[in-house]
Amino acid sequence: MNRAYNFCAGPAMLPREVMERAQAEFLCYGSSQASVMELSHRSDTFMGIAQGAEANLRQLLKVPDDYAVLFCHGGGRSQFSAVPLNLAPSVAKAHFVNTGSWSRAAMSEAGKFVSTHQIAELDTRDPSRWAWQFASVEEAPAYLHYCSNETIDGVQLSALPTGMAVSEGCPVVADMSSDILSQPIDWDTHQLVYAGAQKNIGPAGLAIVIVKRDLLGRHGRPIPAIMDYRAMDAQGSMVNTPPTYAWYLAGLVFEWVVCQGGVDEMARRANQRSEYLYQAIDNNDFYYNPVPKPFRSKMNIPFTLAQPSLDAAFLQEAEAQGLMALAGHRSVGGMRASLYNAMPMSGVETLVDFMGEFARRRG
Ligand code: PMP
Question: Among 150, 154, 195, 312, which is least packed, fewest CB within 10 Å?
Answer without folding.
Answer: 312
